[in-house]
Amino acid sequence: MLNVLERPAQFAMDLSIGGVAVRLDAPRAIADVLRATLASVPNARRETDSIVVSARHSSDSWEVLGTGGNRKMLDAKSGVTQIAGAVVSSAIAEAASARALRTVRATVVERDGLALAMIGADWEAAVTIATHLHTRGWRYVCGDHCLYDPQTCEVLGFEKSLYITSSSIAHLPIAYRGALEASPWCATRHGISFYAVDPAMTRAEAPWSAGASLRAVLFVDGREDELPALESLDAGHATNALLARFAIDRSRHAAAELTVGSYVPTCDLIEHWFASLEA
Prior knowledge:
By secondary structure, this protein is α+β, with helices and mostly antiparallel strands. It folds into two domains: 4-100, no CATH class; 104-278, Rossmann fold (3-Layer(aba) Sandwich), CATH 3.40.50.300. The chain is 25% helix and 32% strand. A hairpin with a 2-residue loop joins strand 7 (107-111) and strand 8. It is globular and about 50 Å long.
């Protein structure tokens, strides 16, 4: 494990997140992870009013602080991947605050300008589904963080690399095998490890989308069965409270819970359901 204190020099990168100029300022070791996971995020020119998110170490903690007021404290022994994740989530929160947007932990893909957001506890399944949909012509809006405008129902793109865990590898489409081999492997002292995969490495045309109008939400919470199934949410369903917290209006967007089967038939079912919403 790299000791972040061995290389104290700071590294800065200027990015455009949701149209907001954000500067990330962190020690070099943390910047190695940021470079790997944010390589596809558009660069921004350094502006005098740019939001700054910085990571600083003291004797007893790490502090991630944004100029807009977002603040995170982590244990001094936290690994570089965990600290980099806190920097990214703080940057998203700062950009959202600057534009009065909502932040949503979601994997979002779109087709023909209409977006499907997958939220819930099973991130590995959501990302794996997204890789299969990508090979079918869908584009990524975001891998695991997104900015949502409740006024326009638009989900803004955030081109952070996908986190592909070892447990997901066997379920990925063939087009992603080469991308995995070319991607950096990130690990923490707590045993969390993943490949940071840029979908552009699959050589698919224009894998990223700058944004799309939210059409539907799927809850992916780890339920599995021999065959996939979708169950629409009724008005009194408990998970509607989560949508309300993100200001996602159920009267304007379809929502369903997904039981995952094998990934090819699961994606067949999702595409059939999504197409029926457009009819």
